[in-house]
Design goal:
four-stranded mixed beta sheet
């Protein structure tokens, strides 16, 4: 009887997690043995188990986080290391075939627990500068190095050494602090506007990619929440944010992503549709003026009074003298709002014609979005150059220090959201809002049983 060749040992499918807090710290678990090694949460997939299921199960068992606690920002597959000879699993598998996932926590201070597993004796949030290859087991270090370089590519291979794995590594790839959004995308008063100076695919305020931007976005969103709470509590300032764009420019998505975490008591979104008969029976600013913010409020206009120039001019709805005289009335209206204490931010989301085509086609091909498609969109697209010229003239004429226009690159949705959020945060910072101080001595107050 011929000798049978032993069946070769397979590689074990494995899911591993690089978990980042809202503060940019990384979660590691301490080896339960007598050594000083630390590990990323990880575990093998059972037969025919999707790797994402293995990830969710292992993260829950080892550190107590549910999928609702984090978002998957990125993954990298086919990373292998062999088991050491003395490892109990080496008789069954050659080693691990890993998929690493970059997980970003959704909330501050998530509740961590090691009670469900014996994999870790404890867990710890590490500052980035504390990560060194030497704290990981030797047989894992080549994989760890590849993971960090892949997730954070702005750092060179030379920075990843045995003693200083990530001495300058930071997962929160910062938006360029030296060039505020208020300067980079501002249209200065009195300047000639050339849209070529504001390319719709520009991303030079952020050095990372989409996945890395999530950490920056979450940090800014956390700051926005705190600033907006103070803004609302102080009940002193008002803020009006105006969004304009070509069809499919992304106004709805940007507003939803940037402002959804704010306190709804202090935020209102007003979508201005085609005027109703009652609105047409009044002056064109009637429906606008009644929606402006009061003290402590942030109001977002999804389209605005500027439609009463843009649409009227391009579609020739009224004689030229109608839209021409509206320039001055809008300038006077916004100056009055500013003088009465309203901070005004005007945002034009700038997409390319090719990107608009792709988004309109996406609406047609998506049953959940086809409701957004209107036949008028095709007519307006045929007037692309007329709309662009009209927006250029309008922005040139109405960008003032008290009511400035910002042209935000919007081909990349993630970059658009990040920059708009940064712009709003910068404006809120400049107001220096504080929580009101009580007019009584809290120590003298006694609450009855």
């Amino acid at each position: 009887m011929p000798n049978q060749q032993p069946h070769p040992r397979p590689w074990r499918p494995n899911a591993a997690a690089v978990i980042i807090s809202t503060e940019g710290k990384v979660l590691l678990g301490k080896d339960p043995g007598n050594n000083d090694y630390w590990h990323f949460p990880q575990g093998g997939a059972v037969k025919n188990e999707p790797i994402e299921h293995a990830l969710a199960r292992e993260v829950w068992e080892e550190v107590g986080l549910r999928p609702a606690d984090y978002m998957i920002a990125r993954s990298i597959s086919n990373l292998r290391y062999k088991y050491p000879e003395h490892n109990s699993k080496s008789n069954r598998w050659i080693g691990q075939n890993q998929t690493y996932f970059l997980l970003v926590c959704k909330n501050d201070h998530p509740k961590i627990s090691v009670a469900r597993s014996s994999e870790f004796s404890k867990v710890k949030w590490f500052d980035i500068h504390e990560l060194k290859l030497s704290i990981f087991p030797k047989f894992k270090r080549s994989v760890i190095q590849k993971v960090l370089l892949e997730f954070f590519p702005e750092h060179s291979q030379s920075s990843l050494t045995e003693t200083s794995c990530v001495s300058t590594l930071h997962p929160n790839v910062p938006i360029n602090q030296q060039l505020p959004v208020m300067d980079r995308y501002l249209v200065p008063h009195g300047s000639k506007l050339n849209f070529k100076n504001f390319p719709p695919d520009d991303k030079n305020l952020f050095s990372g990619n989409k996945e890395e931007s999530l950490v920056e976005f979450n940090a800014l969103s956390k700051e926005f929440q705190e600033l907006q709470r103070k803004f609302y509590a102080e009940n002193k300032h008002r803020m009006l944010i105006i969004f304009q764009a070509m069809d499919a420019g992304g106004k709805d998505g940007c507003i939803r992503n940037v402002f959804s975490n704010g306190d709804p008591q202090g935020i209102r979104v007003i979508p201005f549709k085609k005027p109703t008969p009652d609105e047409l029976a009044h002056d064109y600013l009637w429906r606008i003026h009644k929606e402006v913010p009061g003290n402590g409020q942030i109001v977002i206009f999804n389209r605005s009074h500027y439609e009463d120039i843009i649409a009227v001019k391009v579609k020739r709805l009224f004689p030229d003298e109608v839209w021409k005289r509206r320039y001055q009335s809008i300038i006077d209206f916004e100056r009055m709002l500013a003088e009465e204490g309203t901070t005004i931010i005007k945002i034009f989301l700038n997409i390319s014609k090719a990107e608009q085509k792709a988004r309109l086609e996406g609406r047609l091909n998506n049953p959940e979005k086809i409701w957004k498609f209107q036949m008028d969109d095709l007519d307006d697209r045929n007037r692309w150059d007329d709309f662009q010229n009209a927006y250029r003239d309008l922005i040139e004429a109405t960008s003032f220090p008290h009511a400035p226009w910002y042209i935000i690159p919007a081909n990349r949705k993630w970059y658009r959201n990040l920059v708009v959020l940064r712009l709003v945060v910068e404006k809120l910072r400049s107001l220096k809002c504080t929580y009101p101080q009580p007019i009584f001595d809290p120590s003298t107050i006694k609450i009855s049983d």
